[in-house]
Amino acid sequence: MSLVVMKFGGTSVEDPAAIGRTAAIVKGRITQGKSPVVVVSAMAKVTDQLLRAAEAASLGDRTGALAISSRLRSRHRDTAAELVKKTEDSAAIIDLIDQEFDSLDEILRGVAAILELTPRISDLIVSFGERISSRIVAAAFREKGMDAAHVDAREVIITDSEFQKAAPLDEVIEKRAPEKLIPLVRQHKVPVMGGFIASNETGITTTLGRGGSDYTGALVGGALSAEAIEIWTDVDGIMTTDPRICPDALRVKIISFEEAAELAYFGAKVLHPATILPAVRKNIPVLVLNSLNAKCEGTRIISLAPHCKSPFKCIAVKKKLSIIDVVASRMLMSHGYLSQIFAIFDKHKCVVDMVSTSEVSVSLTVDSNASLPEIAADLSKLADVKYEPKKALICLVGEDIRGQNGMAAQVFNAVRHINVRMISQGASEINMSFMIEEDDADEAVRSLHAAFFQNPDPSVFDVEARKQLLASSS
Ligand code: ADP
Ligand code: ASP
Ligand code: MG
């Protein structure tokens, strides 16, 4: 059985045309003799809109919340009606969409009545995106002649109860995924499930955090020991940087698990940071592919990538960060100071990205502003505290950065016109990062890209595509 997990992101299921392309891609894999297991995101922008509806309801704007839900209901109904015409599914799918939206409306009314939105209810509300998209995609696949079977992801992906960022319980998933999915695959069915959504051990809905459908794909791929995990999105693969910032970004043909994990963690939205973990455990290649350009071979992520002659593979940028400066002269030379500081971040479940220390001061960066005032209040019992939002972290990823003489000088020369607030290079051999003002981030990325991707190594980067682009624009 050549099992392949195929995850399709929001843009790959955003409308009837996109779902049609997705169906053709999955059919293509079946023709190649593969057994696909399909994981889909909510239709593009639906998760954002569900969160907006939840927030409106929590502020007492019942009409606003229900209006968002009503627009989403029409969008899903129209998509299903256009895709599912022939089969006996056509009435059933519209009925099902109505039932799902009726229960969503009931929840929104409840939130508007009690004026409180807990993380648990927020997860329940956003779960409707993937619950409904996966039903529509399964019905559309059947219409197009595939024997698709819908599977409720909440029966497969079991997590702890950390709502909005739940951690998967690997041992349970390792049992559940084969139990639920392999019998279907053996009957030559195509299982279709929603990404991102899960449930805790008592069956309460949880989610894996924003962008978490990639993680679902990898978890399922790992649990089934699939031969590949395919992440289908709207770009040709992992690019040298975000093509929205730098349109001349190049496709990275091949990259190691370690490098991909680093750049996903440091902001390359194309992959959820945890996606690589299950793949590494079972040494399963991850492919990042474009559902709008299915012929392109994408990016292959494997355990050991071939040597690259260029110093860097990719530049990632993570925005909306804050810097916290902690200054305590009275702590001079005293031990245990850092552990007291970190205990406070731990207490507030706040992840620290970067740390820089001097004799009396510590600067840290965090990517969640949620508990900053509370953290600052606790820290101020130990020291003087200042925090500033609107910072960005630029991270350059490449093999053996530490071993290359003069690399830091070249990097900071490329961004000499930009004020650098914090620098980190050391812990990892494959990453060099620095912190700047958020408003300078795009300019910094473009300057670095121009400096380091002039003559990229053709064995690692798709230089042909750039040549064709230049030829067509001249
Ligand atoms: P999906 O909905 O398919 O999961 P996402 O929007 O989460 O897609 O991720 C794809 C987007 O990631 C791209 O459209 C691109 O703008 C952004 N991106 C950021 N950094 C990179 C990078 N290094 N390579 C490719 N895409 C990137
Ligand atoms: N729909 C979820 C989100 O927008 C999960 C995903 O698309 O990966 O965050
Ligand atoms: Mg994504």
Can you characterise this structure?
The strands form three sheets. This protein has an eight-stranded mixed sheet, sandwiched between helices. The protein has a six-stranded antiparallel sheet with strand order 13-14-12-15-17-16. It is built from 14 helices and 17 strands. Strand 13 and strand 14 form a beta hairpin. It folds into two domains: 232 residues, Carbamate kinase; 160 residues, VC0802-like (2-Layer Sandwich). The protein is an alpha/beta fold and 474 residues long. The protein is globular and about 70 Å long. The termini are far apart. The model has no long low-confidence stretch (mean pLDDT 93). The protein binds adenosine-5'-diphosphate, aspartic acid and magnesium ion. Magnesium ion binds next to loops.
Number of domains: 2
Global outline:
globular
Q: Which sheet architecture does the biggest sheet show?
A: 8 strands, mixed
Class based on secondary structure composition and strand pairing: alpha/beta
- Low-pLDDT regions: none
What value does the Rg take, in angstroms? 24 Å
Ligand identities? adenosine-5'-diphosphate, aspartic acid, magnesium ion
- Could you report the average pLDDT, rounded to the nearest whole number? 93
**What share of residues is helical?**
40-55%
Fill in the CATH topology of the largest domain.
Carbamate kinase
Distance between the termini: 48 Å
The CATH architecture term of the largest domain is: 3-Layer(aba) Sandwich
Q: Kindly provide the name of the CATH class of the largest domain.
A: Alpha Beta
How many helical elements?
14
CATH superfamily of the largest domain: Acetylglutamate kinase-like
Strand content: 15-25%
Read across the widest sheet, the strand sequence of neighbours is 3-5-2-1-8-10-11-9
- The beta-strand count equals 17
